[in-house]
Amino acid sequence: MGFNPKDAIESVKDIATNAVERSADIVESAGHIIKGDVSGGVEGIVASSMDIATHSVEKVKEIATGRGGDDDLEA
After folding, report:
1. Would you say residue 70 lies in a domain?
2. DSSP symbol at 70
3. Which of 31, 46, 66, 70 has the smallest C-beta neighbourhood within 10 Å, fewest atoms?
């Protein structure tokens, strides 16, 4: 299956939605830092950032290959 512009737009919307949802976790982690839990706050920020990046890469891969996540599984 090739590139489908409609699917690409949906994937970009999904990336943006996920990033906005995860940004709330980043703000919460920043609050932990302000309250004195620097280690826990930084850990939360890094984890949320990595989740955003991982999700974005997976979606971009789907856009580029025209395949969904389940089609990519290796036997």
Report:
1. no
2. G
3. 70
Give me the domain span that covers residue 49: 5-65
**pTM as predicted:** 0.75
Residue type, 39: S
pLDDT tens-digit readout, 24-66: 999 999 999 999 999 999 999 999 999 999 999 999 888 888 7
**The two structure tokens encoding residue 15:** 């990336």
* 21 Cβ contact list (under 8 Å, min separation 6): none
Using the structure block, give the residue that is written with the tokens 């737009």: 9
The answer to whether 3 and 63 are in contact (CB under 8 A) is yes
DSSP codes, 1-67 = ----HHHHHHHHHHHHHHHHHHHHHHHHHHHHHHTT-HHHHHHHHHHHHHHHHHHHHHHHHHHHH--
